[in-house]
Write a structure and sequence with these properties.
The chain is of the alpha/beta class. The chain has 13 helices and eleven strands. Strands 1, 2, 3, 4, 5, 6, 7, 8, 9, 10 and 11 form an eleven-stranded mixed beta sheet that branches. Helix 2 links the parallel strand 2 and strand 3.
Length: 348
């Protein structure tokens, strides 16, 4: 299935099948070709979209589908003197300040941002632009709660109650973007003075911790692909219930726990030292156009930054955009990330 937030992350860098053939001489092709480095869960559809872009602009676009956002940042920093592409898409507020501080981004080019992107702008990461948004949320198995007579949880506090003991599976925040989103959600909710107390209580309530999203959702969640999962509550994404809809799009087998969701915004930027920075900036600007924002929503099952862009059918009903408020200050995350992870690691 195309929901790339819901598939196993690729473990290596490699050109994916969206690479297109350019026209003209080798020299001409090189001058009209750009490489866009993405995280492992961001893509564009293999339906001619990039071919149409090439025909419109004369620019061939190669997508290099990479690693989890939390390891992509290190890759970009290590290769900054010989960048692996012209632009990057898929860094988040959790790491763009760190990457910006390393001098990875080209701050001289101009990128036209999507409508509404200004509220996600990060002052300490000049040159970056918000392109789409995922929201990390707890999902639950609707049938499990209907059959058990237990009301589904409504917020993070509910997950600590005795009636939900042994029902939840989460991801290690040091190894998973989804797990780190839960960590930031708890810091946002309980503050730096209270988040560790919450984690102690959550773990004491027999919450299972997996290394990544795939193990948590596809193996241990009751509606995962394994068919043997024992946990009816899983840390996943707000858009996940879109993928558990029936073919008629009239019902879904999962729903979101409404409280405790956390916004995760994907950012794009031109890389300093890019071979074709202007063409890369124009491509990122194209990603912000309303029609392309709809394409991104369908390809990644994420929420467009431009809220006027159309959502996939059924998404607004079964996986509506949560009201999560503002994320933590990205500079606070950059300065405190390792400290938070080390503190939680002692509890796991």
């Amino acid at each position: 299935m195309q929901h790339t937030k819901l598939v196993t992350a690729a473990a290596f860098f490699g050109l994916i099948a969206l690479t297109l053939t350019g026209c003209g001489t080798t020299e001409d092709a090189a001058s009209n070709e750009i490489t866009i480095v993405t995280n492992s869960s961001w893509t564009l559809p293999d339906d001619g979209t990039l071919n149409e872009y090439r025909e419109k602009t004369g620019v061939t676009v190669n997508l290099v589908n990479g690693e989890e956002s939390g390891t992509l940042d290190s890759k970009l920093i290590l290769t900054k003197d010989n960048p692996v592409g012209d632009a990057v898409v898929g860094l988040t507020a959790n790491n763009i300040v760190k990457v910006a501080a390393a001098g990875v981004f080209d701050t001289q080019v101009e990128i036209k941002a999507p409508a509404g992107a200004e509220k996600y702008a990060v002052a300490d990461a000049p040159g970056t632009v918000a392109l789409d948004r995922s929201d990390a949320c707890f999902n639950y198995d609707i049938a499990y709660f209907q059959n058990s007579g237990l009301q589904p949880p409504k917020n993070l506090d509910d997950l600590l109650k005795p009636e939900y003991k042994g029902l939840s599976v989460i991801e290690d925040p040091a190894k998973s973007d989804t797990g780190f989103a839960l960590l930031t959600a708890t810091i946002k909710e309980y503050g730096e003075d209270g988040y560790l107390d919450y984690w102690q209580k959550l773990l004491a309530n027999d919450t299972k911790v997996d290394s990544g999203w795939d193990d948590a959702y596809n193996v241990d969640f009751t509606l995962g692909e394994s068919g043997t999962g024992k946990y009816p509550i899983v840390m996943s994404y707000a858009s996940s219930p879109y993928w558990t809809m029936n073919p008629e799009k009239t019902a879904s087998t999962t729903a979101n726990v409404p409280g405790g969701c956390y916004p995760v915004v994907d950012y794009g930027a031109v890389l300093k030292g890019a071979k074709n920075p202007q063409a890369a900036a124009e491509f990122l600007s194209w990603l912000g156009e309303p029609e392309t924002q709809t394409i991104l929503a369908n390809a990644n099952v994420t929420y467009p930054i431009d809220e006027s862009a159309e959502l996939p059918e059924g998404m607004a009903e079964f996986a509506p955009r949560p009201d999560t408020g503002d994320p933590l200050d990205p500079k606070l995350i950059a300065n405190s990330r390792e400290k938070w992870l080390a503190a939680v690691a002692k509890l796991l």
